[in-house]
Amino acid sequence: MQVTDGFLPAKVAEPLQADEIHVWRLSRPGGAGRAPLLALLAAYLGIAPADVRLAAGEHGRPALDPVHGDALDFNWSHSGDQALVALACGLAPGIDLERRRERANALQIAQRFFTAEEAAWLGTLEEAERCTAFLELWTAREAVLKALGRGLAFGLDRLAFRREAGGLVLQRLDGEDPAAWQLRRLDVGDDAFAALAWRGAARRIRCHALADTAR
Q1: What is the distance between the alpha carbons of residues 78 and 74, in angstroms, rounded to a whole number?
Q2: What is the CATH number of domain 20-209?
Q3: What are the tens digits of pLDDT across the range 65-83?
Q4: Beta-bridge partners for 167
Q5: Domain ranges (residues) in the chain
């Protein structure tokens, strides 16, 4: 796979289809800033990274400047030296990545910011299971809020999830029909958790990673 500036492929391996969401896992070494993101967006737009222009939505969600048209939308998240970028046409994806680490106060955070039912469920789990469940709930919330174009200030208790055999399902989202939303947990290895969300019909998710970031 060809690499540009140590970050991303100079050419996208597969065109982004209308019924797909592409998810890239890439390195974001210290000091890289937005360079890996800009390189990826440039590859999809067919321009130089220096020519990529970003704008911010009403609540600060980054997006492509209208000069690039409105066909392509993206969202990204980084944790540690890794990042995930979701790209789609015709919808606004939301993605969140969190590195696994011990959170001794996970239950206290849940009791303060999650729903009472979710906090009560976390309280029944052993510490290791609780950490996993907490990160699943956290990344799901972040992904939905980012797809909605809102941040944590929207209120973490204004959305709720239920657990089903296939994973978490959005049960409530103030002002929205939760049935219109899609939520997927992404497999990013044992050392991290990630979730992808969007409003709209189901789509194929195609995941890519550079050789030096694949696990």
Answers
A1: 14
A2: 3.90.470.20
A3: 999 998 999 999 999 889 9
A4: 164
A5: 20-209
